[in-house]
Amino acid sequence: MFGLSFLVFFWTYMFQTGHNYCGYFLYLCNHTKSNISNLRTPKIDVIIPAFNEEKSIGKVLGDIPYTCIREVIVCNNASTDRTAEIAEAAGATVLLATRKGYGSACLRGIDYLKAKPREEQPDIVVFLDGDYSDHPEELPHIIRPIIEENFDLVIGSRALGNLEKGAMQPQQIFGNWLATNLIRLFYNHTFTDLGPFRAIRWDQLIHIGMVDPDFGWTVEMQVKAAKYNLKSTEVPVTYRKRVGVSKVSGTIRGTILAGHKILWTIFKLI
After folding, report:
1. Which of 116, 163, 173, 205 is the most buried (most CB within 10 A)?
2. Coil, strand or helix: which one is 185?
3. In 3D, which of 106, 45, 53, 41 has the Cα closest to residue 72?
C-alpha cells in the first residue's frame, strides 16, 4: 500500500513540475519488465564531430543541458587549431580522428563507446554539430520521443522548425528536398530533412552498421533506418547561421562532392 501511495505521489509531483524524470519513467516502463526497484535513468551520450571549430566549440559545449547527459565526446577531426584544447577545458572527452571526414569523426566516437564494457555502453546517442548552428539546449526535445514514445531514431528537422535567414544555402535546401523525396520514393519513408542534430537508440545504431566516412553519413543513417524498419520520427528544431565558414556548403567543390555522395548513398543501398 505504501509503495502504491509513493508511486502516485512521485508521478503527480513529476507531472506538475515537468521534471525530465517523468520521461525517464515512461522510458523504463516501455523497456523493462522488472519491478520498480530496478528502474534507472537511461545513459545518454553526445558525439560531436569537429574540424577547426575553435571559435564555436566552447559555445556548443556551454549550451548542452548536462542534467540529462552522461558524457560529451568531441571527435577532433585532425583540427589544426585549438578545438581539442578548448573542448578539453570545457570538460568534454576529446578523441582524435586522424582520417578527415564527417563520418570518420562520428565513427571514431562510436568505436570509443563500443570499447566500453557492455554495462557501461549508452542507451541513447545524440549527434550534434560543433559549429553552433544547432541549438544544444533543444536536446531534451530530440531525445523525448525515444524516451517517452519508444522511437528508435529522431531527426531534428530544420524544415519543420525555425530556420534563420541565411543559415542554409539555397543548394542545401534544394539538396535536402531532393534527397528526402528520393528516400520517400525508393524506401517509402518520409523525412523532411537530413539535419545533423539527431538521436538514436544505441542498440539500433549498432544494428544498422554505419560505415560512411564523409558526406554521406546523415543520409546513410536515414536510408538504413528505412530499410531496417526503425521507428523514426522528426521534431522541429531551430537553426542559425554557423560560426565561421562551412567546409561543405561554403565551397563549390564541397557542395558538388556532398551532393554526389548523398545521391550515390541513396541509390547504392536500394
Report:
1. 205
2. helix
3. 45
Q: How far apart (Å, rounded) are the C-alpha atoms in residues 179 and 187?
A: 11
Q: Is 150 exposed, middle or buried (0-12, 13-18, 19+ CB in 10 A)?
A: middle
Q: What is the pLDDT along the chain (270 residues), one digit of tens a residue?
A: 434 344 434 334 443 434 444 444 344 434 433 332 234 699 999 999 999 999 999 999 999 999 999 999 999 999 999 999 999 999 999 999 999 999 999 999 999 999 999 999 999 999 999 999 999 999 999 999 999 999 999 999 999 999 999 999 898 999 999 999 999 999 999 999 999 999 999 999 999 999 999 989 999 999 999 999 999 999 999 999 999 776 555 556 667 777 888 999 999 988
DSSP state of 194: -
C-alpha to C-alpha distance for 192 and 156, rounded to whole angstroms? 10
Burial level of 92, CB count in 10 A (0-12/13-18/19+)?
buried
Q: Are 61 and 141 in contact (CB under 8 A)?
A: no
Q: How many residues does the chain have?
A: 270
Domains, the chain, in order of start with CATH, read 42-268 (3.90.550.10)
Distance, first Cα to last Cα, the chain:
56
Strand order in the sheet with 44-50: 93-96, 71-76, 44-50, 124-127, 198-201, 153-163, 232-239
Question: 180-184 long-range contacts, Cβ below 8 Å, gap at least 24?
Answer: 182/263, 182/266, 183/219, 183/222, 183/223, 183/226, 183/266
Q: Please give the sequence-ordered ranges of beta strands (E in DSSP) within 37-107, or none if there are none.
A: 44-50, 71-76, 93-96
